[in-house]
Amino acid sequence: MTKELPAQYPPADVEARRYAQWVHDRLFEADASSEKPPYAIVIPPPNVTGVLHMGHALDHTIQDTLIRRRRMQGYEALWLPGMDHAGIATQNVVERKLAAEGLSRHDLGREKFLEKVWEWKAESGGAILGQMKRLGDSVDWSRERFTMDAGLSRAVQTIFKRLFDDGLIYRANRIINWCPRCLTALSDIEVEHSDKDGELVYIRYSDEIVVATTRAETMLGDTAVAVNPEDERYRHLVGTEVELPLTGRKIPIVADEHVDPSFGTGCVKVTPAHDPNDFEIGQRHGLPSITIMDERAIITAHGPFLGLDRYEARPAVVAALREQGRIVKEVRPYNHSVGHCSRCGTTVEPRLSLQWFVKTGPLAQAAGDAVRDGRVKIEPAELSKRYFAWVDNMHDWCISRQLWWGHRIPVYYGPDGDVVCVGPDEQPPAGYTQDTDVLDTWFSSALWPFSTLGWPDRTADLEKFYPTSVLVTGYDILFFWVARMMMFGLYAMDGTPPFGTIALHGMVRDQFGKKMSKSFGNVVDPLDWVERYGADATRFTLARGANPGADVAVSDEWAAGSRNFCNKLWNATRFALMNGAHVEGDLPAELSTVDAWILSRLHATVAAVDTAFDTYEFAKACDALYHFAWDDVCDWYLELAKPVLFAEGPEAEATKRVLGEVLDTLLRLLHPVIPFVTEELWTALTGVDTVVTAPWPAHEPKLANPAAEASVATLQYVVTEVRRFRSDQGLKPSQRVAARVNVTEHEPLIRNLAKLDVPGEDFEASATLSLTGGLSAEIDTRGTIDVAAERARLVKDQAAAEKEAAQCRAKLGNAEFLGKAPDHVVDKIKSRLAAAEAELARIAAALEKLS
RNA sequence: GGGCGCGUAGCUCAGUGGGAGAGCAUCCGCCUUACAAGCGGAGGGUCGGGGGUUCGAAACCCUCCGCGCCCA
User: Fold this and answer.
1) Mean pLDDT over residues A394-407, rounded?
2) Is the CB of A511 under 7 A from strand B?
3) Model ipTM?
4) What are A173-205's pLDDT values in tens digits?
5) CA(A616)–C1'(B16) in Å?
6) Residues A104/A356, Cβ–Cβ less than 8 Å
7) Residue A435, exposed/middle/buried by CB under 10 A (0-12, 13-18, 19+)?
8) Which residue has the least CA–C1' distance to nucleotide B15?
9) Which of residues 625-664 of A touch strand B (CB under 7 A)?
């Protein structure tokens, strides 16, 4: 089959059309009833408010590559898409919309507000799903899931009830991370720490007691001063009381080992209601907790500071203390680590409140063991350390959020403090009222690998595809999301972990290795690349940089390079189709050396690519494919095939078939990474409908042909040396020159590639190119030989050979080397020396001739 | 402060005991009937510094310097 192709690959004309066809033909839909072995990936659910960024593009490229290859290998491949409901983020979006109309969610009430959220989701949520299509993601859209769907909500309620009944969920008054803007509790992982310039103020509580603090306003809630029990300076004060300034309250001085005597003055103010460490000190010493701020971080303590925001209160408190002469020292700026809400950036305020927690101890233990005993593999294995560091030191997980958007906690309160946890098919007793909080979004995300397959029902999907094969995600969320899925998967699925392998990649960075950030202005939009360079080029750029667990640096120039590669493939196939390449019938029984060589290289490439993909070495797979395609196929094989094809003999017929074979296999190997251009080219080449379901190339060792590889290597060597000579001599590329060559093989091909004519009657060799292995080319440059250039070239070669010879001689002159190095190493050095010496002799003779 | 990791060509990165590599960038020459998004050729590195182990170190060990990430 032949087809007219334009001279440049036009991604925009291909991508949308091909993607629509794939979806229409249901090529990405998995069949739970098939006999094929399963291969499943659940997508790390993007946020319903989110848009596609480079991190997604990398993550999805990797998953799509894995899935597409397995699909071609004959697995029942399922890549399941969907989104999470992003409690805080989504509620913020909708509240902002309401605010524009002058409304708050309280004006609407809970029910109405949730209707508004669903409306927003229907209208503008999930933009990212459409963007995934532009990348070419081969996800099964018929199985798209959302964490707030009925089925997934049922899964949430089911596991909550089970955990509750098992005593693994409890409610307690604890210090939690509180966002005074979002007005909700946050878990540890939703808090980002960064260094900030603040102040360290030393406050005199008495003649002997001076405390240092970065949050002076919290002193209003102090209920003790703590010192280290070993600290000689204060030992005599333990058990006495001191008057808390500004309040007149008497507070005790307690001894607690937690206090670091070397920090500040060695005295610590203790504010149990507003600091996690102080809370623990308070617990140990039975101290009261005095809450001095409301949920918006506004001072509620009676007195002159009542009603001030925490940042107004801080200088006001310091000023009042200064007036009393109680400020001993002020360090400003004082650089220290401060926690911020990961959603809105507001400084987190530790707050004592009643919240729900998951008791992580036994769950985290199981999650760690599954990796320790090898049931789950982490790729690259080195990152297991980070995983263990997290799961082995996990704190109990605060799962309640003071939001409306999310899974409402299925706990009801009755009279006399009765508490009932209700399962999915149960009704609460009449008159009981439901807890007003919702669950952390990660709580439902942690169920994703099985809730999306139908759990708690034993569905066909669950039977077929659980446990999933591999989870692909960035190392940056290994320790929270992945660990949580492991905990819940093991718990819900009777000890079967949710995936066999965790394949980790890094973050996408700019061309200088800098993190992409808006403030830096170095953010690249993947869709911008899709438009400018094509989806394939975008994917190839990312895959080509994806070393396991390592960050990927990208730039426009590299994306352009990938686009060039796609175009190279396009033109190679275009050329092949114009010259009769095809895939009909068996490979020819008789192969020319050149045809045997390219098939040998092809199958070495198949083996290399298989190994690389099997070990998540995407960069290596891409590198092998890039070099095979560009160097071996385009630069050499097509050029060598040209004279054969143009001559139209029986050898041409064989080469047409081999060329078809090479491109057929190459395009199938590349399809998982660059699906669009390969689909377009492969279908044109083969006449088959789609490469999506074409078989993955088999590695055929019998095609390995070392003799042909050696023969072509010699040809390449001679051609390259002649080209080098020509370039040094300033001969134009198009200028043919007469030459007498003594080579045993491939003379016509060498003459063709090196632009050497057969000597005529007036031939007069003006330069002799002597080559390794007794090969030579005598060239007639019509007397215009540039002796200086030729001498410079030879001298350079001579220096290289001398260096090589000297290195070898030094080794061989070393008795210890001869005695201790293995024989094969010694032999290799000997043959290298022999080759270098022959080279030196050849060059010396050539130099002699020049003078 | 604790933990993990990195330092190889101008940039980004492979290479983990036996000849320093790739892509991009740079320089020179070319519109060579698949491709100028291209072709041919070339230059460029005391493998962060120092010490050690070894016949042999970019690689293994120690130390110093610089950088990054996570946790507190």
Assistant:
1) 89
2) yes
3) 0.94
4) 888 888 888 888 887 777 887 777 788 888 888
5) 19
6) no
7) middle
8) A620
9) 626-627, 630, 634-635, 638-639, 642
